[in-house]
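Figure 6 in text form: structure in, sequence out.
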């Protein structure tokens, strides 16, 4: 925590309950606020490798790899847009 504070980075690691010492209500609320952001990011990191087979970029050169990653991000955003329109 101290290293993150010196670099002005927010500490966003979930707190954990232990045996005979469960989480308090305030700790549960803080974990809930952290989970809102975390859930959106984890969906992206789950979607790209599984659905788009993007765990490896098999191109020659950084430029082509950048274009491929950009196209994968565009495809993810389009899929997400379609999901949100249907909801």
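Output sequence:
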């Amino acid at each position: 925590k101290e290293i993150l504070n010196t670099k002005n980075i927010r500490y966003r690691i979930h707190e954990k309950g232990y045996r005979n010492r469960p989480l308090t209500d305030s700790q549960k609320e803080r974990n809930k606020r952290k989970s809102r952001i975390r859930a959106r990011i984890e969906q992206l990191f789950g979607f790209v490798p599984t659905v788009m087979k993007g765990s490896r970029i098999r191109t020659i050169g950084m430029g082509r790899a950048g274009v491929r990653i950009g196209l994968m991000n565009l495809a993810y955003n389009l899929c997400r847009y379609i999901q949100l329109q249907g909801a």
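Caption detail: The first helix runs from residue 2 to 6.
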